[in-house]
Amino acid sequence: MDTPSLQERAAPDGICYGCGGQNPHGLRIQSQWHADGTHVVATHVPEPQYTGWPDLVYGGLIAMLVDCHSNWTAMAYHYRAEGREPGTLPRIECVTGQLGVKYIKPTPMGVPLTLKARVEGEVGRKSRVVCEVYAGDTLTAVGDSVFVRVDTAQLKAAAHGRDT
Fold first, then answer.
1. Does the CA dihedral 20-21-24-29 come out positive or negative?
2. Which of 16, 89, 135, 154 could share a disulfide with 20, CB 3.0–4.6 Å?
3. Half-sphere exposure of 53 (CA within 13 A, CB side)
4. What percent of the chain has pLDDT over 90?
5. DSSP letter, residue 53
6. pTM summary value
């Protein structure tokens, strides 16, 4: 990719296992706006340790890819809706409110996966994102999830029992 990814632009310090560039053990997926201006796309080639059944991708990996990529789709949507570039302050962050994945066909190992996501509905802080997973030209899974815009400092404090 010639253009820095959404993750590189908006969260260069990210440590998420799926999409954080600073996680040395993570997948480091990178998402970009598609030329159509509606979809956000990413590609990923699963490594052998993510095998489920022989020669098939582990379903949990597919769910993680859908989760991270869909979340970045929601955040990119919010930046665009506010007329701002990813990475401008204040930082926009979302978390998963509901994750849904429908497995349509087995996903083969050794084939680049393409994730293609779009916001299907937005109400205030919540965005519904639909994410299609393709192995080559074959649709193998569809995510239908909800992401919630949050203040992560408040979220972290609440998770550790330090409500503000």
1. positive
2. 16
3. 5
4. 88
5. S
6. 0.95
